[in-house]
Structures are given as C-alpha cells and as structure tokens.
Design brief:
InterPro entries: RmlC-like_jellyroll, RmlC_Cupin_sf. The chain is an alpha+beta fold. Helix content is 17%, strand content 32%. It is built from 2 helices and 11 strands. Strands 1-2-9-4-7 form a 5-stranded antiparallel β-sheet. The radius of gyration is 16 Å and the shape is globular.
Length: 193
C-alpha cells in the first residue's frame, strides 16, 4: 500500500463550485450516514449542473497520454474534494476502487461506467454488474465504502468531463486497482494534474 501524500487545500474561483463546496461541507457537518450524505450531495450536484456554470479551459483540458483530475476544491482537513475529471477520446481508467464515498455528475461529453462487485476474497476474478452511459447533467452515486469498484471511459467522439465529489482528498488517497481477470490488487494514488 502506498502512503498518503500531504493534503494541499484548494478553493475554486468558480462561484457554482465554491457554493457546492460550502453545501458539501455543511452536509458533512450534519453527521449524516453515508447513504443519506451521498443522496444529498447527488441532489445538490444535479441542481448545480442544471443551473449551468463555466469552468476555466485549463480545468477541462484533456491530456493526450492519460485521464487527468484537476482539483477544484480540496478541504483543508481532507474531508472531501471536488475534481474535474477529464478523459480524452479513447481513454479510460483501470478497474479501481475509491476507499471513500463519491458522487459524479457529467459536465460535458459521455462517460461509460462498468461496475463490478466489490471483492470479498483476494485473487478471485471480479464479477461484472453492468454498464451505464452518463451524459451531460446526469449524476450518479459512483461509490460508497462498501460498493465502489468500477471502470470508467470516454464514450463519445469528444472528451468527457465529470465533476467528482469525494469524501476524501482523492488526489492523495491510496486506492486499489484490480485485474478483473485474476482479482489481483495493486495500490495507486490518482495524483492531481
């Protein structure tokens, strides 16, 4: 397992994202259980996306080599983060977990998500649970601590940009990736762009 990196707080200059961050902070402060918290964050992210906002070009730019995550907000205590995650055409992630809760809304493009049952036994092939496509304005609870294994890729002919809200600083959090054929686990950290 890799060690967690130092948390560097980030605050967004985009009013809609700054407002979302304040709301998420308030929701976390209420001590809600994970299901209630992610449902409330989902509702708030749906509202923010429906009202519309513009991210700076540098926070939606794809990388020609791999997917990237730009920090839009990172709480000083590491209790949550908001990211702009960008996949260029043809790019995707390995099968991975999150080690925390997460809610994802699509800002632009089409994201294809393939979900897997969270393994309870090491080194056993993963069991698929289906694939969904998510388009602009659609929001999903992508992960809870007991159900958080998936693979994501760009599903269209333009880059996909998602707004991801996680219950940790996702750019410093050690997480698992899986070989779906063997169940082998490797630890990684996404690292911020």
């Amino acid at each position: 397992m890799t060690t967690q990196q130092e948390i560097v707080p980030v605050q967004s200059d985009v009013p809609a994202i700054a407002g979302l961050a304040r709301t998420v902070e308030d929701l976390i402060g209420q001590g809600l259980d994970e299901q209630a918290l992610t449902a409330a964050v989902r509702t708030e992210l749906e509202r923010v996306l429906a009202e519309g906002f513009e991210l700076p070009a540098e926070q939606v730019a794809p990388d020609p080599v791999r997917y990237v995550m730009y920090p839009l907000h990172v709480a000083a205590d590491g209790s949550f983060s908001i990211a702009s995650a960008v996949w260029d055409v043809g790019q995707g992630t390995p099968v991975h977990g999150h080690e925390t809760w997460g809610v994802v809304g699509i800002y632009s493009g089409v994201e294809v998500e393939t979900r897997y049952e969270k393994p309870t036994t090491p080194n056993v092939p993963l069991v698929g649970q289906g694939t969904d496509e998510w388009g602009p304005g659609e929001v999903t609870v992508c992960c809870t601590t007991d159900d958080d294994v998936h693979q994501v890729r760009c599903g269209g002919d333009q880059p996909v940009v998602g707004i991801h809200v996680y219950g940790a600083d996702i750019g410093t959090l050690p997480r698992r990736s899986y070989d779906p054929e063997t169940g082998a686990v490797h630890w990684f950290t996404s690292r911020w762009a």
